[in-house]
Prior knowledge:
- By secondary structure, this protein is α+β, with helices and mostly antiparallel strands.
- The protein folds into 3 domains: 3-242, Beta-galactosidase, Chain A, domain 5; 277-673, Glycosyltransferase, CATH 1.50.10.10; 677-724, no CATH class.
- The protein is built from 20 helices and 30 strands.
- The strands form 8 sheets. The protein has a 9-stranded antiparallel sheet, covered by helices on one side.
- The two termini are 27 Å apart.
- The mean pLDDT is 96.
- The structure holds 5-hydroxymethyl-3,4-dihydroxypiperidine.
- 5-hydroxymethyl-3,4-dihydroxypiperidine (IFM) binds at residues 307, 320-322, 461, 463, 609, 611, 660.
Amino acid sequence: MYIINHTGYSKDDILRNGNRFLIGNGYYGYRGTLDEHTKDEMVQFNLNGIYDQVGDADRESINAFNPLYTVIKYEGEEVSVRNLSPFKHEQQLDMKDGCVTRKTVFHVKDALLTIESERFADQNHKNSIYAKYWFQSTKPLEIDLSSGIDTLVYGASGAHLKNVEFEQMDKFFIFKATSKEKKKEIIVMETCTTSFGIEPENEVGDGKALHHYHIKMVPDQIYVIYKFAGVVHEEENGMEKLFFQLTRAMSLGYSVCHRQNRKYWADKWDVSGVDISGDQEADTAIKNCIYHLISVRPSSDKVSIPTRGLSGQIYKGAVFWDAEIFMLPFYLNTDIESARHIIKYRIGGLKGALAKAKQYGYPGAFYARESQDEGFEASSEYHLTDPETGAPIRNYFREKQIHINSAIIYALKQYLFRTDDVSVLLEGGLEMVFECCRFYANYATYNEAMDRYEIQDVVGPDEYHERVNNNAYTNYMIKFSFDFLFECLRLSRGADYPYVREYMKDKTESSDKIKEVRSKLYLPVPNADGIIEQFDGYFKLEDATVKDVKRRLKNPNEYMGGETGVATSTRVIKQADVVALLVLQRDLFPIDIMKKNYEYYVDRTEHSSSLSAPMHCLLANLIDDPESALPFFMKSATIDITGVSNQYSGGIYVGGTHPGSSGGSYISLVYGFAALEHHGYQLSADYRLPKAFNSLEFKIIVKDYIANVKVRRNSVEIKWEDLL
Ligand code: IFM
């Protein structure tokens, strides 16, 4: 099932529907708001990779002007959900062709006025967006239709655009503006054609440029307006190219553009789709995940995937480790170009990572927890607030989440392993790995008494317990990073890349230090009960239940971790931590240790990060317990359909879409229930399906071939075909 819909209109649904009916193409996202909506309803034409800061407020991604604004007025009053209760209302997403529609019926005088629209993000030309808006009345009705560009856009942390200039070129409205901080130019363009052949009166004012049409509606006649619009920034001759593209689109006509777009989606679904038979809810849910992953695929090496996709300015439009650990595998299996962009974005971010390490007094690279353009760290020391008092809460995510480096290295290893594309190593990848390891080696503390190196004062994936020592996840991931560095050096030495020799010439001291730390790095082992202690002293904390701890909250939006949180003195954790380690490094420990740790940690975990469920789903599968894995899969995969997720954390709005969960759900199916394994260019799979699934089908691109994998309740089939 490829359809998601929602009936009825309520103001309370606006935020969730904005996410549910999001369209996008990786260059931009356009929230699932309605044609007549404005910044009050958080319309956001959100751009990837361009950021701005106003004063001391958060630096966040920029929303472009809204070129799809359209409204009908009757006797000067809006016929709109903003001021009338509709008689009927429905919104729908057809994931098969990436198209969002709405149908709303209003009582106007003694007539029923039906307004419908559809919109789609152009997947072939990243700058363009199209909409069709049509309406009909049961009785004669004289109305005014206005459509154009609304420049009054929503900005979570301020208005980011200044020097707004308007110009008209042929039938196009064009707004140009510059971002406040870096003075980057952003251009939004729009034009429309209609079925009713009336010349519009154009008006510019009150922050809008509008084409007005006065229409004497004849009963049951359908009136249509087609909108051709787009946005461009930072591209050479961007405006000319966009103008050319939209003029061409207009001459082809809306239906042709739509058909071309459908073709794109059909091809994408063909290679990336996953089919679950036997459980329709699960099938729709995974399709929704894939829909979102396709819609946010990065469009260049300068961008990756923000943690809330392109659903707005949540989490400042920044990229987290979610992209490397949770999303990358989907692209590695279905869209290598996007996978490469994810890797190259981090290589391009080395500058920011070197600067961040320097800021904290370390050599090497320290990657941002919340990464913006060129790796700029957007995370602040006072990320959260007390919902009761509004007072900022000091936290150490920015300074102490050193595990981000290792996620990037982990991703690079997977990329290399799957593609053999060593060019990324020669184009800065090796430097990136080396500088990350250099940072780690210098961050480590030598414990003389134990003759070992320890990793002290960190925040692991479980963000509730800050500034802990020897977080097992972090220590093992650092070891993984060191090992990979030496593997890369070996690899490139064998191939005799002069670049590598040159780069390593003056690195002997640093590489000796890395070797030394690697050889004596403390790696926590399971205790007598087989449990790996999450960090030093974790077992000494109060063993309270999640319920107990939640009962101690004074406010439901109160932050549970950090210096003063109710979970801090207990073993209750936010999200998968040791569990994540066991999933990412599944060969470290035998199955019985994995099982014991799953059982120990699963109920001590609050699972309030959307990243927790997929890790637990995967581990439950690895220990051969698909029935326990299924609820985690469903929680994760349905998150952007149901909208059931943490909306606030420590007073901050953290809604939006969850591409990390989408990617995590994909991995859960492919590597969990289907037990897929890569052996060089060969694949194996197994059947671990929960009772609810009859079969699971998907494709995997391996070099120049496509593997068609079908897992049934008691058999596995892998058929190969050429990748054309
Ligand atoms: O990256 C995550 C982090 O691990 C938990 N808090 C939310 C972030 C963004 O998804």
